[in-house]
Amino acid sequence: MVATEQRPAAPERRRRPARQLTRKQRENRAGLAYLSPTFLVVLVVVVVPILWTILLAFQRLRLINIRRSGLFGDFTLRNFEYVFTSPGFWSSLWTTLVYTIGGTAFSIVFGLIAALALRRRFPGRTLVRASVLLPYVAPVVAVTFVWEIMLSPQFGVTNDWGQRFLGWDRPIAFLSQREYNLWGVDIPLALITVIVFEAWRYFPFAFLFILARLQAVPRDLEEAAVVDGAAPTQLFRHILLPQLGAVIALLSVLRFIMTFNKFDDVWLLTGGGAGTQVASVRVYEFLTSRLDIGAAAAQGLVLAAALVVLLVIYLRFFAPREES
Amino acid sequence: MDRATFETRLFGVLRWVVIAILIVVTLFPFYYMVLLSIRPIEAVLGNPGDLWAGPAEWTVSTYREVLSPVSDGGQGFVGLIGNTLLVAVSATLLTLLVSLPGSYAVSRLQFVGRRQVHFLFLAIYLFPAILLAIPLFTVFTRLGLRGSLFGLIIVYIAQTIPVSIYMLRNYLTTIPVSLEEAAAVDGYSRLQTLRKVILPLAAPAVMANALYVFMIAWNEYLFALLFLVENRGNWTVSLGLAQLSGGIEVSKTVLMAGSVVLTLPIVIIFFATERLLTEGLTAGADKG
């Protein structure tokens, strides 16, 4: 009786781990299969091109002979030598950094202010919220053109009004003047204009995420503080800001990466002239006007490497620690 | 008056000031775009500061020039709209086809390398688009894909897939697993469950995602410039408009009419679906 009860139990015990393993394997296989189209696209359009760019950066190649050349040629460091020593490299890197930090900081600060202002309900809030997002969703080509025309010295509304109401003695070429003397100080006018555009176009992005986080802050937390007589600035400093820390940190990183690699906005506004030659515009110029693929690839890699270094520094020293 | 009362009143007023400024700053450029597109160029050059134009002054000749075919002396934007629609719709459908199973795998299935997937996605954004463009330009030239819309579509899929999978995954994790188990008991295979149970439930997220991809593809400029510039017949609206600005004889009011043509579909889609879209994008952001 005892023996017959034990006998069927034994194979059962042996079989169970085996069956679990096959289920796991099945799931593993399904997971990889479902993700394989994604892998394939990313591999073909992103990973392989990046690896290839690395190879290209170490070869002297021009657009004319690339159709004939193979994957591997004579490897050399001359592209990097050329990139580092060519005039304007360091100033372009500096411009990129100023542009990125300015664009990131202003877009987040304005996004935060907008989110705080639109936080509570009021009639028409949905409509206002939607219109605030417009700069971000509108096509870049269209909005850069409007800005160009608004700021135009000949027929732009800004200069017309500036001369009529603000007493400007002559029109200001916002997008094509490298330096402007403001109260005795030279300011990089075109670069500042481009940064302002960047802040205008991307503050809705910050706004959207900060607003979503704000609305998840527990009501009773704030109500308790208000009962204790906390002023709005104290409320913001001690209740809201700690809650927003993580999303602001994430936004900073995201916006920093996106702005650092940005091409279209600057290209369409100034063509990279008047002291606004950011690094990605430089890559484009190496590629299209000098037809120098090797140098373009090397410049692009230097750009990516600089970005990685900055991100590592940020994550190592400045990123807010996860509260345990 | 104590600090709390003073500040509450101050910010009560400031809040409305900020809201007013926000509305002006965000909407004014769009108003200006429309205004210039319906004013004759002579009027704009004569009074550049006017912010209002009476109906008597309005003209549609700018739109006629932008939309009429090249053979009639226009800019042929109707054809460009067709190209852009083709690219944007195909990119949207294909991205969904690829990212839906992908996001399901990331949110539900345990597989080797699941935790490493996001590094791959990060790589897409870490490298400047212009860097990817160099080899893609070469390969597409060799394969004869440069100048074709197909090459462009593939690039757009790759560019939108990380956000797409992120959005869908956030939504899929909110769907109870028990529903899938019930479907499995009913004898559904995994693929059938995905199609007949998950897809209908995730419809809002899928829709938000589709709109996101469509907008990105509709607005994109850099890759369109690099791949299509030599093939005028395949230009997208963004590219056509940018090329138009280089032309000397094209007046700024025509350029603004083109901008309106480019922007209007996006604005309509956006206002119609704003809630769906913003909730889809920020799902998960409120968790910290």
From TrEMBL, chain A:
Q: Indicate whether Acetylation appears among the record's keywords.
A: no
Q: Where is the ABC transmembrane type-1 domain?
A: 93-314
Q: Does the keyword Metal-binding apply?
A: no
- InterPro entries the record matches: MetI-like, MetI-like_sf, UgpAE/MalFG_permease
Cell location: Cell membrane
Bias (Basic residues) ranges: 13-23
Annotated keywords: Cell membrane, Membrane, Transmembrane, Transmembrane helix, Transport
- Chief location bin: membrane
Q: How does it sit in the membrane?
A: Multi-pass membrane protein
Which parts of this chain are annotated as the region Disordered? 1-23
Recorded superkingdom = Bacteria
Transmembrane stretches, by residue range?
Answer: 32-58, 97-118, 130-150, 187-211, 239-258, 293-315
Homology family: Belongs to the binding-protein-dependent transport system permease family.
What is the protein's name according to its record? Transporter
Automatic annotation (TrEMBL), chain B:
User: What keywords were assigned to this record?
Assistant: Cell membrane, Membrane, Transmembrane, Transmembrane helix, Transport
Q: How does it sit in the membrane?
A: Multi-pass membrane protein
Pfam families, per the entry: BPD_transp_1
Q: Which domain of life is it from?
A: Bacteria
**SUPFAM superfamilies given in the database record:** MetI-like
Q: Where in the cell is it found?
A: Cell membrane
Q: Which CDD domains match?
A: TM_PBP2
Listed transmembrane segments: 12-32, 77-98, 119-143, 149-168, 197-218, 254-272
| All copies of domain ABC transmembrane type-1, residue ranges | 81-273
Q: Does the keyword Membrane apply?
A: yes
The answer on whether this UniProt entry bears the keyword Transport reads: yes
The family database entries (PROSITE patterns) matched by this protein are listed as:
ABC_TM1
InterPro entries documented for this protein: BP-dep_ABC_trans_perm, MetI-like, MetI-like_sf
Q: Family assignment? A: Belongs to the binding-protein-dependent transport system permease family.
Task: Please report the name of this protein according to its UniProt entry.
Answer: Transporter
Q: Which organism is it from?
A: Asanoa iriomotensis
